[in-house]
Write a structure and sequence with these properties.
The chain is of the alpha+beta class. The chain is 48% helix and 7% strand.
């Protein structure tokens, strides 16, 4: 807090201190630690001083639960990545915020928002086809776009399944079928384990290309199961 006050007094860049102070205040309150009122006042002033996209980032990182609206605001405020290899750095903070949002039950009961938040976890580092001088990545979507695309594809007869891990390591699943978004649900950890997924990813799917062991696929995906049955063939 004293560092934040010093930043204000010296008129230094407010965003780095604001982000750190905001997260410290949030974590302290989550642990039941009393936070002095001055900390909130300093944080509010740092946020005001930062302005623009930086203020939006400070607000989202310090919020107990980042909302879909906050994520959409950040996506709109951040300049698009020029090269595909830059996406991981540019979108890393938003992906972390998206995982925190998915850990809250509120987003699960709003399927369109859940679709958007899950999309924020997607790998956007693959360049668009037919690039020439710059391997440009696809742009991040607006808030309602992922749900609209899922509905459109599902009307062609294919269910759309969106999957992503929340901040607590639980797999969140959202299915869209026949133009309708389903309810986002969390898979039971006994069926889909994040630890099992990381262990599997060390050798697979590459190993499937040369290992002819009997029933290899079924044996290696025992703990990578979904409680989901498609409604279309």
């Amino acid at each position: 807090m004293s560092i934040g006050r010093r930043v204000l007094d010296r008129r230094d860049q407010a965003a780095p201190s604001g982000i750190i102070l905001g997260q410290l205040v949030r974590e302290a309150r989550e642990r039941g630690v009393d936070v002095p009122g001055e900390a909130d006042a300093v944080f509010a002033e740092l946020n005001k001083r930062a302005g623009g996209a930086l203020a939006a980032m400070i607000a989202a990182t310090s919020a107990p639960v980042p909302t879909a609206a906050q994520l959409a605001g950040l996506v709109a405020a951040i300049p698009p990545s020029r090269y595909a290899e830059d996406v991981g750095y540019d979108m890393g903070n938003i992906a972390s915020l998206a995982q925190r949002a998915l850990a809250d039950d509120a987003v699960l009961v709003a399927p369109a928002d859940a679709s958007f938040v899950l999309e924020m976890l997607a790998d956007r580092g693959t360049a668009l086809p037919n690039w020439d001088e710059a391997a440009a990545p696809p742009g991040a979507p607006m808030r309602d776009r992922p749900a609209a695309i899922a509905r459109s594809i599902s009307l062609e007869g294919a269910d759309v399944l969106q999957l992503g891990f929340d901040a607590e390591g639980r797999l969140v699943r959202l299915a869209t079928s026949g133009g309708e978004l389903g309810k986002a649900t969390r898979e039971d950890s006994d069926r889909f384990s994040r630890a099992a997924f990381h262990e599997w990813s060390r050798d697979f799917p590459r190993r499937y290309g040369y290992d002819d062991s009997p029933n290899l696929f079924y044996r290696t995906t025992e703990h990578l199961q979904l409680e989901y049955r498609p409604t279309t063939a």
